[in-house]
């Protein structure tokens, strides 16, 4: 572990709006075994709406496994995950994604041969209603909003007449829901690419993006599914300090957009700087929970994690 | 020698991608004119009489087959390739039993449309109909599509949970099962004797048919090319929609796609069903034009030929697979000496193409990159 953390180097924590918040995600006594390995051992914690929760722990502690249970990749051996009151464990990943949990991957898993824009659009598709029949026949029509109508741009002549005809047709018959969804998806995806700061690479295939841009693209793709809860798995891995600073801002902005954030991160400075609360795992067991300050003073945590990283440094 | 070949190859590839780029950069109205002109040429093709180009016609050589007939076969194969491309090229599911759906489409029109079929005879007896009665050709169209689509769903439902090689094995078995059932279920399909008098648009084949006769095959080609163009239009719509994106995402990383909300099973099943329907439709056209089918026409080698069309042409790219289909259908007809050694020449050509151009002749750009990268990785790992 390269990051050495001491309490002095920590940035002051500004607790964001205090007060009671709605319970969003509840992990309740979750156990997950892989054969003999107990990856999660009766782990319980809760996430409230609008907070940034840090999930930390040494390598192999079970953090990523916890994400996998929450997003339906693994089914817990016992215990339950509830999201906004509804049961999550046992459901399939696409369904959970529609319920409002999204994530990024520790080892980047984009669609490498699709462009950045297409990657994000796959995310937006999870909210689309059009499927094969709708895309093929385009019979389902909706009344477009005024700004969605075809514009008449030409000054005069045949082209102008044609544009007027198209506009009138759209007013009378409406536009196909498929086309409107497709346009909205593109607009929203571009906006998200701008938000994470890679709008200039929209038409680049994901595989050709730099490592940092791929991480940013993963965040944009996860945001595109309109999650209530977004889980970031080591988003700063491989970032330099300047990039980490940007990421810190980005995570705050994500919260300000109305998403709840669950963050796995090894860089303690980043965790201390951005999270409201921290849960610490070690060998699949929760060993501490509390504000970043409390947690970093907890002797068990220091022994398990901070102590170890200081030793290593 | 090999190096020189590779160098020319690289130059040609650069030129090709240049054409594609320039084409995409043209204004919409110019592309519209281009496409219209191309379609006009397609419809003109059976009449081809331009001096200097007549050597292209298959009947320009001794004992050559009817030019329009060969064009018809090409059109059928293009339809097959487009359908199989949805399954193999877009959704990334290796289907080695595509002939099964082709056969189901062909047998739909044979069993319900021909007065010689045991099924129609049984209906005549049961419902006391005239001996000339059979299901109308036009009704057989949706019937063939529905039956092949349903069989696609029935085959896909349990098997699409399998991945990679397992799916290939199961589908290969499916293609064979359909053929064997058609041969052994004598009471329904006439078995190896086959079914004759399969109707066309004008009803059962007869000398009185004005347009869709047995001699002049031009109308058949025009019918087939119309169907092909309609299907190209339809598949393009899917490709450029949420559906196409989901297929690509599944092909690239199925688990990540699932977490992003893509219902992998649903879209794979759709790809399978759409592919099956297109295969059925081409089988339907084939049977109508041929007026006679028997099980030996649907053997596994044809399945492999279908996959070869897709792979040689350029998996994932509709233009590519159509080109591959035309090539594999046309070359043996025009160059008869090839047709005698068809499978040898074919195997040799496959090897050459796969060595020099593993992405296919006109690859989809995505696939091309994928394979080039894989080649690089291979070099690194050595
Ligand atoms: N699919 C699997 N099969 C078997 N064991 C697994 C599997 N996934 C994870 N594990 C085990 O579960 C434990 C927790 O792994 P996990 O990836 O969740 O750790 P982590 O906290 O994310 O660590 P890191 O900081 O290295 O990412 C490890 O011992 C790991 O070997
Ligand atoms: Mg991890």
UniProtKB/TrEMBL annotation, chain A:
<dbReference type="InterPro" id="IPR027417">
    <property type="entry name" value="P-loop_NTPase"/>
</dbReference>
<dbReference type="InterPro" id="IPR003439">
    <property type="entry name" value="ABC_transporter-like_ATP-bd"/>
</dbReference>
<keyword id="KW-0547">Nucleotide-binding</keyword>
<dbReference type="Pfam" id="PF00005">
    <property type="entry name" value="ABC_tran"/>
</dbReference>
<feature type="domain" description="ABC transporter">
    <location>
        <begin position="25"/>
        <end position="308"/>
    </location>
</feature>
<dbReference type="Pfam" id="PF12399">
    <property type="entry name" value="BCA_ABC_TP_C"/>
</dbReference>
<dbReference type="GO" id="GO:0005524">
    <property type="term" value="F:ATP binding"/>
</dbReference>
<keyword id="KW-0067">ATP-binding</keyword>
<dbReference type="InterPro" id="IPR017871">
    <property type="entry name" value="ABC_transporter-like_CS"/>
</dbReference>
<protein>
    <submittedName>
        <fullName>ABC transporter ATP-binding protein</fullName>
    </submittedName>
</protein>
<dbReference type="InterPro" id="IPR051120">
    <property type="entry name" value="ABC_AA/LPS_Transport"/>
</dbReference>
<dbReference type="InterPro" id="IPR003593">
    <property type="entry name" value="AAA+_ATPase"/>
</dbReference>
<dbReference type="InterPro" id="IPR032823">
    <property type="entry name" value="BCA_ABC_TP_C"/>
</dbReference>
<keyword id="KW-0813">Transport</keyword>
TrEMBL record, chain B:
<keyword id="KW-0472">Membrane</keyword>
<dbReference type="InterPro" id="IPR043428">
    <property type="entry name" value="LivM-like"/>
</dbReference>
<dbReference type="Pfam" id="PF02653">
    <property type="entry name" value="BPD_transp_2"/>
</dbReference>
<feature type="transmembrane region" description="Helical">
    <location>
        <begin position="220"/>
        <end position="238"/>
    </location>
</feature>
<keyword id="KW-1133">Transmembrane helix</keyword>
<feature type="transmembrane region" description="Helical">
    <location>
        <begin position="134"/>
        <end position="157"/>
    </location>
</feature>
<feature type="transmembrane region" description="Helical">
    <location>
        <begin position="269"/>
        <end position="288"/>
    </location>
</feature>
<protein>
    <submittedName>
        <fullName>Branched-chain amino acid ABC transporter permease</fullName>
    </submittedName>
</protein>
<dbReference type="InterPro" id="IPR001851">
    <property type="entry name" value="ABC_transp_permease"/>
</dbReference>
<feature type="transmembrane region" description="Helical">
    <location>
        <begin position="96"/>
        <end position="114"/>
    </location>
</feature>
<keyword id="KW-0812">Transmembrane</keyword>
<keyword id="KW-1003">Cell membrane</keyword>
<feature type="transmembrane region" description="Helical">
    <location>
        <begin position="300"/>
        <end position="331"/>
    </location>
</feature>
<feature type="transmembrane region" description="Helical">
    <location>
        <begin position="32"/>
        <end position="55"/>
    </location>
</feature>
<feature type="transmembrane region" description="Helical">
    <location>
        <begin position="343"/>
        <end position="362"/>
    </location>
</feature>
<feature type="transmembrane region" description="Helical">
    <location>
        <begin position="67"/>
        <end position="89"/>
    </location>
</feature>
């Amino acid at each position: 572990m390269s990051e050495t953390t001491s309490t002095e180097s920590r940035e002051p924590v500004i607790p964001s709006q205090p007060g009671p918040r709605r319970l969003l995600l509840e992990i309740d006594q979750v156990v997950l075994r892989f054969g003999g390995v107990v990856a999660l051992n009766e782990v319980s914690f809760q996430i409230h709406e609008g907070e940034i929760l840090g999930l930390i722990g040494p390598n192999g502690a079970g953090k990523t496994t916890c994400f996998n249970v929450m997003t339906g990749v693994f089914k817990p051996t016992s215990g339950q995950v509830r999201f906004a009151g509804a049961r999550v464990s046992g459901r399939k990943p696409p369904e959970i994604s529609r319920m409002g949990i999204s994530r990024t991957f520790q080892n980047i898993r984009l669609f490498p041969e699709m462009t950045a824009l297409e990657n994000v659009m796959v995310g937006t598709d999870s909210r689309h209603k059009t499927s094969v029949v709708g895309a093929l026949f385009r019979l389902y029509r909706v009344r477009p909003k005024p700004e969605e109508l075809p514009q008449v741009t030409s000054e005069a002549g045949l082209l102008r007449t044609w544009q007027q005809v198209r506009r009138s047709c759209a007013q009378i018959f409406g536009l196909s829901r498929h086309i409107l969804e497709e346009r909205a998806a593109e607009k929203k995806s571009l906006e998200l690419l701008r938000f994470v700061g890679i709008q200039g690479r929209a038409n680049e295939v994901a595989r050709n993006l730099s490592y940092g841009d791929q991480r940013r693209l993963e965040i944009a793709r996860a945001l595109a599914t309109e999650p209530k809860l977004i889980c970031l798995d080591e988003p700063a891995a491989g970032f330099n300090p300047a990039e980490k600073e940007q990421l810190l801002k980005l995570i705050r902005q994500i919260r300000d957009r109305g998403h709840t954030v669950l963050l796995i991160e090894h860089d303690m400075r980043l965790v201390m700087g951005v999270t409201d609360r921290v849960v610490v795992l070690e060998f699949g067991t929760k060993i501490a929970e509390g504000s970043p300050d409390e947690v970093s003073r907890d002797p068990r945590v220091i022994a398990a994690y901070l102590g170890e990283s200081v030793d290593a440094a | 020698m090999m190096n020189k070949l590779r160098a020319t190859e690289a130059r040609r590839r650069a030129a090709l991608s240049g054409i594609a780029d320039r084409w995409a950069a043209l204004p919409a109205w110019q592309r519209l004119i281009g496409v219209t002109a191309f379609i006009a040429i397609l419809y003109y093709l059976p009449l081809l009489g331009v001096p200097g180009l007549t050597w292209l016609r298959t009947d320009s050589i001794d004992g050559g087959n009817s030019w329009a007939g060969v064009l018809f076969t090409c059109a059928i194969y293009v339809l097959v390739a487009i359908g199989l491309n949805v399954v193999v090229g877009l959704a990334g599911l290796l289907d080695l039993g595509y002939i099964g759906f082709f056969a189901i489409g062909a047998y739909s029109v044979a069993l319900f449309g021909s007065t010689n079929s045991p099924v129609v005879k049984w209906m005549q007896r049961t419902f006391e109909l005239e001996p000339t009665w059979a299901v109308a050709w036009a009704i057989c169209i949706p019937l063939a599509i529905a039956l092949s689509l349903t069989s696609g769903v029935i085959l896909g439902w349990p098997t699409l949970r399998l991945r990679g090689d397992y799916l290939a094995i199961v589908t290969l078995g499916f293609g064979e099962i359909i053929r064997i059932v058609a041969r052994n279920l004598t009471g329904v399909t006439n078995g190896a004797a086959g079914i004759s008098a399969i109707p066309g648009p004008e009803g059962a084949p007869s000398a009185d048919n004005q347009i869709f006769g047995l001699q002049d095959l031009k109308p058949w080609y025009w019918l087939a090319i119309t169907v092909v163009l309609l299907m190209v239009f339809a598949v393009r719509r899917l490709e450029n929609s949420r559906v196409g994106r989901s297929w690509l995402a599944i092909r690239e990383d199925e688990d990540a796609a699932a977490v992003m909300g893509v219902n992998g099973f649903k879209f794979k099943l759709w790809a399978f069903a759409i592919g099956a329907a297109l295969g059925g439709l081409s089988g339907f056209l084939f049977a109508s034009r041929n007026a006679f089918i028997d099980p030996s026409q649907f053997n596994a080698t044809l399945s492999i030929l279908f996959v070869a069309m897709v792979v040689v042409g350029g998996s994932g790219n509709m233009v590519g697979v159509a080109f591959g289909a035309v090539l594999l259908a046309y070359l043996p007809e025009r160059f008869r000496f090839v047709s005698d050694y068809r499978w040898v020449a074919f195997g040799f050509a496959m090897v050459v193409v796969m060595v020099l151009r593993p992405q296919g002749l006109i690859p989809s750009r995505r696939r091309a990159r994928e394979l080039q990268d894989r080649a690089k990785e291979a070099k690194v790992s050595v």
